[in-house]
Amino acid sequence: MTSATYFIPVPPDTLSHYGGSVPALVDATGDRTAVDGYDLALLSALDLDQTIGVWRGWRVSLHGDSASAARMYVVETEADAQSVPAVASAARAALLAEGDSSSQVEVYGPEVPLSEQAWAARAQSALIWAAAAPEEVRLAEVDGEATAVELDEHERAAVLDYLRLAVVVAAPPGGPAVHTDGRWVWPDTIADRLERHGTVTDSDLLAHVRAGGVTPDAVDAVAAHRALAALHRATEALVVDDTAAPAPAEIAAGAQEGMTMDAGVARERAAEHLARVQDPATPLRLSDEAPAEYPWCWVFDFNAEQWFRTREFTDGVASGPVVVDKDGGDVWIAPSAPPLEEWLNVHAARRGFEAVPVPRAGSPW
User: Fold this and answer.
1) Residue, of 251 and 112, whose pLDDT is higher
2) 17: which DSSP letter?
């Protein structure tokens, strides 16, 4: 039986409004229409003077043709380890008083790290409250050839250090790492160009760096989430790479093998694929959790090795899972925007596989 779990940042009954472009994460701070009575009840139970951020999403579980969903809140607090259980208990009690007995609340702080599940939930959620007021996050212009500014060697080194030292918020396999200082977002290609040609393509970004000092400011989970949300808003039109589709002869050869690959062999294939596509500066590894199984594929979550050591938001990578076809025909990485089943079915259509059920509004949840 097909079984899978993932997180979404929007209510399940609104999925049909998004089609195949459900946002991977959302910054909803300041949007009164984005919160409801349950959210307000939880917020009223928190000491907001000690709260850094509150994220809300839905944990969706697919079991064969049925599905279920429950809210999951992640709260970052400044409280010490001894106080964290009381913070979580108060939040759960407030939800229960509103008639919500199914939502999960995870609280973390300086002395209480995030669990793997809570990290995944926060990374694909809506930020509904934050102590820090929202500020405009700008995306750097990559192709500004006409407005590129040439720097002398001394300034070139200082600006390059700033661009490289800023926290990495996304490291898509096979693509450039994406950095932020909380106010701007830029890909590694901007630093690469500066290093090779001595020019910065975005004069406004350059002015920001010049005004910011030698070292970029530290970026917390709230600022990183807002930077990623800005990035995703600018790249909502996800494109599936058709060049990865196997040729008809490969499809036929794969079909003859049958859907016989077990989870152990699939894990080896997935690990080999990550080793090929990863940036050596950001090594990746598969999660220790059991893979999700579909009729024709295995699905493995992964993250940066550094994240598995620290569980810090800024050490993670923004990516969908590794998918291994059971017939041995292909190993590929799905986009991060849920639902995953939409992307599985795009691939299934190319390879002649049976479509899998896609959770939609009106389903049993």
Assistant:
1) 112
2) G
